Amino acid sequence: MTWDHLIYFAVAAAFFWIAGSVTSFFDRRKASLWSLIVYSTGIIIYSSFIIAFWISLKRPPLVTMGETRLWYSLFLTLAGLITYIRWKYKWVLSLTTVMALVFLVINILRPEIHNRVLMPALQSIWFIPHVTVYMFSYALLACTFLLALAGLIRPSLNVLDAIDKLCRAGLSFFTIGMLLGALWAKQAWGDYWSWDPKETWAALTWLLYVFSFHIKNIRPKAKKQLYVSLIVAFLALQICWYGLQYLPSARGSMHNYALNIKR
Amino acid sequence: MTVSLHLFAFPVNLIIGLCIVFLGWKFRKLYRDIYMTIALVLLIAVSLVQGFMPGHVAFTHSWPFVVVLTVFLIVLASRLFLQFSLAGFGLWLALWAGMLGTADASVTHIMVPRHEYARTSLPFTLRLEDFRVTRYQTGEPMEYRAEVSLQDMSRVKDIPDTGKVPPKGTAVDSDGRENTVLKTLRVNHPVHYKGHQVYLMDYDSAKGDMTDYCIVMVTRQPWRWLVFAGILLLLAGALKTFFR
Questions:
Q1: Which of A115, A187, A200 comes nearest B47 by C-beta?
Q2: ipTM attached to this prediction
Q3: Chain A hits for B54, Cβ within 8 Å
Q4: pTM summary value
Q5: Are B30 and B78 in contact (CB under 8 A)?
Q6: Among A27, A68, A21, which Cα is nearest to A40's?
Q7: Does residue A23 sit in the same domain as residue A4?
Q8: B216: domain range?
Q9: Phi, psi of A40 (to 5 degrees)
Q10: Secondary structure (H, E, C), A86-99
Q11: What pLDDT does residue A262 have?
């Protein structure tokens, strides 16, 4: 099994993922068993490629950039499936399908990343869970941002319930991603938390979302303040995610793997 | 403005920690949302300052930051006394032990030479035995691997320094017990030795495998188990929130 075979598995998996996402909209009341079966079939097809690839490589496919991206798609679809089973949201399967397909398409269209190697600092058991959990939380929190914008523009819309559940899931995953990072940091850098710029902005983002929760609890009627606090929190998330490189404070960040070769 | 950490070394930090718990219990009326809002806003404000500071300015070690964090811990403690929550307690424990433990923690960077033991102020010393860089076909590094001997200094004090290079491998001291161990250091794989953690940080990249030294970071964090427990509890709390 080589990279050349990926496209066949990807097309088959994408077919089942899209079919599962579409059928999940049909059943109005509960999680559709058919969508679950179809979507899981996609995951099984996709994971069988990873397993076969693993066997033919004779090592876990965890080393190059391309190999890492393979796991992103797997974990995103798994997270989507779990969230769907848990909360029966119709949109969640479509969201994770789109995200998983983005990484798959990148992997197929840019073969040069297949052998783009992973430096020793990133070769850790924590790497993939840390990144995929964060990705999923970013996606959920992005949804709350869009809902908050919609609520701000058209106050007649009732988005509070959806925001509440999305925020709960998004912040849970964000917390888990952050803590997995802390456990990794102890192994790699010697301390759980060292107020590296990326860590500082992750803490800020986390605090701002906690603050939103707080506003919602103490002033349930203050919709506008909730929307604004969610938008501010999402802006902090953008700085944490990719905006950091434009801040002078982040030049020495240990998370800047493009600059630091040996870390 | 920087906090002098040595003033807070054990047992001062533990006493302060207990005071935080006591204050949280004594002023249980601080559980009210208004105080939590103030504490949160203050914490966001000081984090924001750190967020815009250049990396080398450790605002988190300054008085304003530490005071705000302490206030936050007191308010959170008072809320936990009123209504316990797993995530809240995990967060509180990790922050409490993280903040107080800093005073007892130490970080030392040591240049470990190949042919002699490094001079250190630690209870042990190190010597580089072998260094290997494995590369991908592209020439980029895949793995750095340093074999180092660690020698327990508390057990070799009586042996006179003959100036000779000690033999490689496992050595035995006068009472026949091992005082030297051979360990492998890799990135992301620190070595634990005598309450310390040893991390591989750097080497002479111009010389590659033939490097004359490697640089290691040695940390000691006696409070790290409490931080670890706090992180696990917060993780459990986050999972609980998700599945509720």
A1: A200
A2: 0.90
A3: 248-249, 251-252
A4: 0.86
A5: yes
A6: A21
A7: yes
A8: 106-155+167-220
A9: -65, -35
A10: HHCCCHHHHHHHHH
A11: 38
